[in-house]
Structure formats: structure tokens, C-alpha cells
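Weekly modeling sync, notes
Attendees: S.R. (lead), two postdocs, one rotation student

Agenda item 3: backlog of single-chain predictions. S.R. asked that every request posted to the team notebook include the full sequence so nobody has to chase files. The rotation student volunteered to paste the first one in as an example of the format we agreed on. Action items at the bottom.

Example entry:
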Amino acid sequence: MEAVIRDAVDQYIQTSIVTDEPKDRDARRAVLKERAETVTKVLVNDELRSRYLIKMSSKHPRLKTADWEIVRKIALPNKGPLPRPYATLNFETVWPDPSAVVLWFPFFPDAGGQRKSVSFDCDEGDLDDLIKALQEARTALAGTAQ
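Predicted structure, as returned to the notebook:
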């Protein structure tokens, strides 16, 4: 997929068939060409190409995963129970590894790169502030898409 997006299918095929037996290279070349055509027709579109270029040209880590959990503490030393549950948000980012083949596609869970995680607890007010900031960023981004 990355070879198709980067318009480097021929280079990918050449490096992929180097280890094949000479008699198998033509058959393998044909299979890889056919797969590249399928990827081009079915998976790759302008939006995916654009997302790829943004991710590949960024000097910042990429968001790999985001998840959350709701927590209720029953008791703390010398404090008693906390009166309400709270959310714990977890974000994992990945700095790209230049030697990795797949650097950013979210559906490849073992993509290369240096990972870093951050987790933090927040109440409903914190979540509201975060949602508001994300909505403002989305609105601003949509305003520049002309």
C-alpha cells in the first residue's frame, strides 16, 4: 500500500523479488503488479494519499492509540472515599523509525518507531475542556480546507 501511495511500485517489486529464485521472479513480479493494481483501485484514494503525506512530512510524533477507562476509588489513606468516578485517558504516540517499512498506518499494530505514552486522570470539566479544544481545532482545520 505504501509503495502505491508513494508511486514506487516498481522499486518495491524490484526489492521484493531479489531473494526469489530466477525462475520464480517473473511469476512473483506479475503477482505483485496485480496486487498493486488492486490496492490502487480499491484502497488508495486522494484522502489516503493526503493523510500519508501529512504523516510522513510531520516533525512530530504520530498518534498511535487513544483509549480511556472510568475509575472509582473506594478509599484513599487518611482521605476516605472519593465522591465521584473519573476518567483516565491514555494516548500513545510513535516517533517514526526511518528503517521501518510501515510507519503510520493505524491498522498495522506493530508499526516501527519509538513509542511514548501519556495517561492522565480528568473529571467531567476536564473532558469538556478537551472536547471544546478538539472541536475548535476541527473547526479551524475545516476552515482551511478550501
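Discussion: group reviewed the output briefly. Residues 22-42 form the longest helix (21 residues).
Action items: rotation student to repeat for the remaining queue; S.R. to check formatting next week.
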